[in-house]
Amino acid sequence: MRAKKYLLLVIVTLSAQPVSAEWSGSVTYEYRHFANAPLYAGQHGDNSSIELQPEFHQQWDNGRQLFSFVPYLRADEGDAARDQTDIRQLSWVKAGEVWETRIGIRKVYWGVTESQHLVDIINQSDLAANPDGEDKLGQPMLNLALIGDYGTLDMFVLPYFRDRTFPGEKGRFHGQYYVDTEQEAIYQSKDKQQHIDYAARWVKSIGVWDIGLSRFYGTSRDPRFTTGLNSKGQPVLLPNYDLIHQTGLDTQATIGSWLWKLEYIHRSSDIESYNASTLGLEYTWNGVFASPTDLGLVLEYLHDDRGEKAGTPFQNDFMLGMRLAFNDAQSTDALIGVIKDAHKDTTIVSVEASRRLGNAWKLSLEARYYEKVDITDQALYSVRDDDYVQLELAYYF
Questions:
Q1: Phi and psi for 309 in degrees, rounded to 5?
Q2: What is the pTM of this model?
Q3: Which residues of 22-52 are buried (b: 16+ CB within 10 A; e: fewer)?
């Protein structure tokens, strides 16, 4: 009865004031071509999938309140672990003069560097969608932002943990043993997924500097792995999620055509304590060779003081990139990047490009190539033959 009364009150309140509602979204066909046969039995070859992401946004109260709903669905041809139904966003936002509240499922991005995002810890990575970790799952949260001359202070309560997604047994981008997500993961906290995490971030612009300081306590988004057995008695990997403390700094200075960037974290747990950082610079040449095209050159250094014991392949690496924005009517752009280990031959080459086709279509290309992967780079050595080219055709409505 109370729920019906509340729903009626919401309907009456919305009908009594101007409301702006909008539906939009996209349907995307994805095709991946793999240059090599799979390393492990049962993995698929070339593969395709279809993604649907509708969006509903409604504003009222003179734009001070916003409701958003963004579901997400993906059906995959070769890997059942990539089939997904998720809510990327289901949130209510209310803005005041010096504050803003955000409640529900949302995505939050922190960071400034190109090659990796060390400080970005609120949302879980969707590795089933893409091995680069850029795709994220929606995160339930309560978020209060305080805004003033001192900057912006964001405070988060995160009441539910999202397990990371991984390619399945038939998928690519996994080693001899795949990550079994059908079994319950192993959590340090007795509350498991119901452990309440906390985070805060302060940001402020001071002169040419944009500065962000962040603090997080809760369940790590980056799991460790132990071996186990699946329902068939076959060896698999099981994710282990530790409780961690993380302090982060991200800063960027804009000096003419130059951007100077830094991301740094200190993370500690009962298992380990370490520092990691990414230091970079980017120069943009506007109107290169008297054309409409802008050319950006990116150089970054990636460091993790755990060395070979790190769970990431990027402990001592350089990234060199080139960004092209053609500034044409079709919004054509491209990013080419090379990550090279400072002491080994291990090299990763990546390409991302996109172009609009008319008013409703977009064609995107993504490619990744692994060259001379050293056997000591275990995370990369297991996927050394998973070079691929991916094409996406998206229709926006």
A1: -80, -5
A2: 0.90
A3: eeeeeebebebebeeeebeeebbeebebebe
- Rounded to whole angstroms, the Cα distance separating 103 from 169 reads 36
Does residue 12 sit within a domain? no
Structure tokens at 37: 């046969």
- CATH number for the domain spanning 66: value is 2.40.160.100
Contact yes or no for 359/341 (Cβ under 8 A)? no
What is the span of the domain harbouring residue 192?
31-396
Q: Rounded CA gap, 243 and 151, in Å?
A: 29
Instruction: Return the percent helix, strand and coil in the chain, to nearest 5.
Output: 10, 55, 35
Pair 138, 89: CB distance under 8 Å: yes
What 3-state DSSP class applies to 372?
coil
Residue 245 lies in a domain: yes
Tokens of 159: 């009441």
Please report which residue ranges of the chain form alpha helices under DSSP H: 2-15, 378-381
272 in a domain, yes or no? Answer: yes
Please count the structural domains in the chain: 1
Two tokens, residue 309: 């014991």
Distance in angstroms between the alpha carbons of the first and the last residue of the chain: 38
Domain membership of residue 348 (yes or no) is: yes
Pick from 105, 120, 95: nearest CA to 201: 120
Structural contact between residues 89 and 105, judged by C-beta atoms closer than 8 angstroms: yes
CA angle 105, 179, 161 (to 5 degrees): 25
Residue pLDDT tens, the chain, 397 long: 444 443 343 444 444 455 689 999 999 999 999 999 999 999 999 999 999 999 999 999 999 999 999 999 999 999 999 999 999 999 999 999 999 999 999 999 999 999 999 999 999 999 999 999 999 999 999 999 999 999 999 999 999 999 999 999 999 999 999 999 999 999 999 999 999 999 999 999 999 999 999 999 999 999 999 999 999 999 999 999 999 999 999 999 999 999 999 999 999 999 999 999 999 999 999 999 899 999 999 999 999 999 988 888 899 999 999 999 999 999 999 999 999 999 999 999 999 999 999 999 999 999 999 999 999 998 899 999 999 999 999 999 9
Residue (of 246, 225, 229) closest to 166 by Cα position: 225
